[in-house]
Amino acid sequence: MSVDPYRLGYVTDLEGHIDFFLTFVERSNVLDVVSNTPKKLELDLRDGCYFVFGGDSVDKAPGDIRLCRSLVSLKRRYPDRVFLLVGNRDLNKIRFTAELSAADMERDIDEIPSPHWDPNAPSLRTYLEQVAKAKGMARAEDANTRVERLRYMLKHTLGCPDTFEFRRQELAILKECGVANISDDQICDSFIFEVENEEGSLRQYLENANVAAVVGNTLFVHGAVDLNTMRFVPRHDTKFELPTKRAPPGKVCEDLIEWVDSLNDYLRVGMKDYQARPVWDEGRTTRGGEALLALQNRCAVWGRSVISNCYGDGGVVTNDHAVQYLQDPNRAEMEDKDPMVFENVSSDPKDPVVAAWLKKNGIRRVVVGHKPTGDCPAVLSSAFTGVEIASGDTSFSDVSASDNRGLALPVIEIVGENAVDNHLEISGRFNDGRDYHSTFHRLYGKDDIDVTVGDHTLGTEVDGGYWVKASCTEKYRLCRGRGRKVEHDDVPIAEFRARFGK
């Protein structure tokens, strides 16, 4: 471990991948494994270190319950040095309690709305017709079971079609039995229990997590801080629906700490509401925790979700394609009329107004997850605005791998003299198995940048739309892309200097 007196570790978007998390811990300079059995993982935090988990703990591997339990246990033992953030995949499970309730199951299937944020998703009736046909049933209503409702939600409204079977695998591990011994109804019961019951792993995670966290000069959120999300706190009566007009904010905070505290209070109030009213009212017009479902849904809060707004496009932190789409006058003209126009927008990490507000409030770095950025984190150098942006989600680093992750492993750490005088270090492994280690400039004070620390080329853009993402043995990893298409070019340092004059 480094002799630096301050060190903070960060990882995000684990999405149930407990083996990936264990590999991260092996390389981490802040966490250690105390014990690891098939049924339980216990971690410890090294002396004086800090740890932030960036959200999205569940959904895409058979480790949801154990990961949540492990993270909550660590948080409870180190409440002032461990921070857990809520992601969209954590908050949206609140839906299960009302939408799988006995009362909802009795409703006509045509009364169950399709997801308002995805016009391409099939209706529940369309899905059940397909199930009924496959099973030789006469009507869609014959397939309308709680199991199929849950499968529909997971596949067509939550974007995780394999999660049902992943839960079967994890329950088999926890119950020490074969997967054939885990029934479909047990899986349904588990999803509801884990979010509704006070002993449930996800319920405990949500009760111990935050929407945002500030540690020294660094702000952590799951999604993005931009012109729409900065200072904004939604109303507590915000509905989880497609709104017809932009609602006024519940609160606007010029002071960043007040803003962070208000967002975290919003989570606390929403969780109490959920606990008090876990199912629909008689008219199916409201349910507890609805404001939290709205918070993680861009269109429900009219493009102002600090959880689901995001940086990144084509594997890099920003590019011309993202900027052009954001600034397209035809799209921008609709921002006051249609909340759906925010759905495919990438926030601008170079925004000078946002950077000025952050710096005024002592923030020199923003660290996020939520949107995948290739096989290593994407960073915007502090040279652009004085605020460094680091995006650390690598959950789609290798789409040819069964877990979409492959060999890629990111280790993000903030290192230095203290919480307000430090630099970013990103190390890990590319998909091809090669290691990398990148050190960025030291940030301190409200504007000071020490360029004697770190590599001035990292997190900058060069000719051809390439960004310098990482450094490995005598080479730079360059990256460019558009949408989900990502290109890499590994260039020897000497050749890089000759090509780009840096």
Question: What's the SSE blueprint?
Answer:
Layout: E1 6-11, H1 18-27, E2 31-37, E3 40-45, E4 50-53, H2 64-77, E5 82-84, H3 88-91, H4 95-99, H5 102-105, H6 124-134, H7 146-157, H8 163-175, H9 184-196, H10 201-208, E6 212-215, E7 218-221, E8 232-233, E9 251-252, H11 256-276, H12 290-295, H13 320-327, H14 329-333, H15 352-360, E10 365-368, E11 378-380, E12 388-391, E13 409-418, E14 421-429, E15 435-444, E16 448-450, E17 467-472, E18 475-482, E19 485-492, H16 493-500
Parallel strand pairs: 1-4, 4-5, 7-10, 10-12
Antiparallel strand pairs: 1-13, 2-3, 6-7, 8-9, 11-12, 13-14, 14-15, 15-16, 17-18, 18-19
Helix pairs in contact: 2-10, 8-9
Q: Please, what is the average pLDDT? A: 96
Strand order of the largest sheet: 5-4-1-13-14-15-16
Structural class by secondary-structure content: alpha+beta
Q: How much strand content do the residues show?
A: 15-25%
Could you characterize what this model shows?
- The protein is α+β, with helices and mostly antiparallel strands and 502 residues long.
- It has two domains: 6-86 and 209-229 and 306-490, Purple Acid Phosphatase, chain A, domain 2; 92-198, no CATH class.
- The protein has 16 helices and 19 strands.
- The chain has helices spanning 18-27, 64-77, 88-91, 95-99, 102-105, 124-134, 146-157, 163-175, 184-196, 201-208, 256-276, 290-295, 320-327, 329-333, 352-360, 493-500, and strands at residues 6-11, 31-37, 40-45, 50-53, 82-84, 212-215, 218-221, 232-233, 251-252, 365-368, 378-380, 388-391, 409-418, 421-429, 435-444, 448-450, 467-472, 475-482, 485-492.
- Strands 5-4-1-13-14-15-16 form a seven-stranded mixed sheet. It has a five-stranded mixed sheet with strand order 6-7-10-12-11. Strands 17-18-19 form a three-stranded antiparallel sheet.
- The protein is globular, with a radius of gyration of 23 Å.
